[in-house]
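Researcher: We're teaching a course module on how sequence relates to structure. For the next exercise, students receive a sequence and then see the predicted structure as tokens, so they can try to spot secondary structure elements on their own. Here is the exercise chain.
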Amino acid sequence: MTLIDLFALLLTDSGFAIGYLGEALNHLVNGVPL
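Model: And here is the predicted structure for the students to work with:
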């Protein structure tokens, strides 16, 4: 997923984008590669 995709998600469905960012953050914190 590119930054543009992420930006589009933020514009269209902020709830989903926030959930996705939360997931990504979890993986990064746990040291699991995306």
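Model: If you want an answer key for the exercise: The mean pLDDT is 75. DSSP finds two helices and no strands in the chain.
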